[in-house]
Amino acid sequence: DALKIPSRRLLRDSKNNPLNLPNSGRFTNHIIMLFNDGLVHAQNSTFTHHPLNTVWIESHSSEAEQQNVIVVTTPEDTLTLVANTPEDKADWFMTLNSTINKNLHCDKIMRQNSSERLTPPLIRHVTYTFTKHCQYKDARYIGFMLNGKMHGQGELVWSDGRTYYGKFGQGLQQGHGKYTIPTEDGLEIQEGNWKDGMLNGYGTIKYATGDIYKGYFRNGMRYGHGIYNEGQHMSHSASIFIGEWVEDKRHGYGVQDDILKGEKYMGMWQDDYCNGKGVVVTLDGMYFEGNFVYGKLTGFGLMLTDDNSCYEGEFQGVTQLQGKGCLTLPSGDKIQGVFNGSWNEGLKINGMFNKSDHVLAGSKPKSHIMYGKLSVPADKKWNEIFKHTLALLGYLDSKKNPNKAWEVVAVRLTQGQKVIKELERRSPSKARTLSSSLESLQTIPPYNTGVLSIESYHKILQYLTKAFDNPYHPAGNLIDSIVDVFRAAYIGIGAHPRLLHHAVQEIKSYVKRMYVVVRLLFPDLPSHTGPVHIYPESSSKTKGIPTSTESAENFLRNDSEEEPYEVISAASLLYPILLPKIYPPLFDLYALYNDKDDEQCWERVTKLNRQGDMALMAYLGIEERFWLMKEILLQDKSQKLSAPRDQCYASAVETLQQLSTAFSPIEKLKVIEKTFEEITETVQASLKDDHVWCMDDLFPIFQFVVVRAKIRHLGAEVHMIDDLMESHLEFGELGMMFTTLKACYFQIQNEKLRH
């Protein structure tokens, strides 16, 4: 009676057309009934109704013992049915397929020259409510199914309010999808790439509490590199962690920015605790370095304060001095002994006071013997970011195949094109820009020819510049991640002058590890990161480009200066790409480190600039023939000699001012070189001859240009070039010019001004 519906018609049943379940018991009664709207399996007093649009039929005929078997598949059941004869099986099979086709509104089309009816489509759009499935019980599915399993785009809605919308594969979440979970605090939203019903790969979770995780997953757990924003303070997160995860716990290198405490931890983690080498900096200028055990600074460590006090000794927590140690005061005086107490609240000291023989001079933060030795080495930071990119490009395979790497690049760029098409509706201008960038990346320069010329190198450089700027290229993803971690580490509380050394070491490490990725794509590049000479394609030396350090040294020794060449290195290739993206936080660190010296220099520059050109040149000791006042007075004969201001060497001054807008060391050095060229051209135009400089004549003129350029953070600029300039440039022309700029800065700082 429960099956009686006016529109329902019985088409076939197993009583009149035998169809049996193998291995069924003697006392069980199974009946298979085919209606015009469903297939019913009745067992004793119970029955199960399967809508025909969720029924798939398969015939087993390959093996003799299964030649009469029909397999019926539904989303939650699989029935293996056996007919008595092949003819009975064929009748059932044809009737089932025909009825399913009618139900799916398919035409009854016969294949040409065949009496076999077309089988129903394997992929169907269905609406189905699960009743038995342990994971999906009472959930309603709307979407595509393949052979009884959710497959393709679909939506799953549970009775408790949970929803998943996205891709499915073989009955599980598979591909990109969005999973929403209602909780007492609100909605939790999980979005990203799914595999086997769990988040795998990159994804995000927005927790009901307001916390957000963005990063990588494995089997539904946070695993790999990720960012966790926790809590709220004003309009920002109260705490931000960026680093490595293992099974939902912080594990490996990471940076924790605790805004409420005003502290930043940069170091190793284990089982969700700070554990291992690490550094802590605070908003009030404190710096701690040492070994952490379950979140607590323990054992021997280093403490540096804002006033240059230094403690090296035993700790039992940040600011908690406990045990033997040595405290060096800003004056250089030392206290050695046993310390007990808090630096902020009071210390009990049992030790000896040693008076310093000399007063420590200078305003920069002092370096100490242990500084940097108790922290995580730069090459061990952010390994997951580089591992992910290298694994993606096939570097971790036994054979490093550039062709495979380029196949991956092609796939990623194709995926990017699909994303851009979807973006066209929301932001046409942005979509056009990205599309143009992707098109330019379709042309790949020669990458595995065995030789490297100046021409091919510049093609590679041009390609890499575009690739690192494109978010859909693996190189673009890599540099975006590097920029994110660098900003996370050195912005906010991390904008601490004592972290400058760590930042510089990280940048140098980035370049080495980025170069490994670049060489995977372009094996023609030198295998080592040091300087190498390259020549034009027409040169006989092009085919002999060295690929090892030893051959490179021999190559440089035998080099002839007759042919044009360029000197390349990993830094010269990657600094112009990387540094512009991280320049603001990096230069802030240099500005903070050199703040007091630059302030002193700026005061002197301001005083010197109160003088007119002639008075300033006379003060700096420039010979009168280089004053170049005749041309200025000829332009305006009415003005006095003391009147001209900011007119002498104006082109050189304007050129040097570009120092602040250049990002990489080589760009800054070229600005300095161009400044010297402008000075020379100005003098030669005035004296009407090819003037040969001696340093006694050139130095005061260059100092005049430096003063007039009014570079606010000149010390920071000099310090940055000094740190990042490649060693092979130090003893060439560029190195000499830079040394002259350093000497000018020192002279301005230390020379006594006349009142």
From TrEMBL:
Q: Does the keyword tRNA-binding apply?
A: no
Boundaries of every PH domain copy:
1-101
Under the GO molecular function aspect, what terms does this record hold? Answer: guanyl-nucleotide exchange factor activity; small GTPase binding
Question: What sequence ranges are listed for the domain VPS9?
Answer: 610-755
Q: Does the keyword Cell wall biogenesis/degradation apply?
A: no
Look up and give the organism this protein is from: Lottia gigantea (Giant owl limpet)
The protein's matches in SMART domains, at most eight in alphabetical order, are given as: MORN
Which keywords appear in this protein's UniProt record, sorted alphabetically? Repeat
Query: What is the organism lineage in this UniProt record?
Result: Eukaryota, Metazoa, Spiralia, Lophotrochozoa, Mollusca
Q: Which Pfam families match?
A: HA_Alsin, MORN, PH_alsin, VPS9
Official protein name in the record: VPS9 domain-containing protein
Q: Name one GO cellular component term.
A: cytoplasm
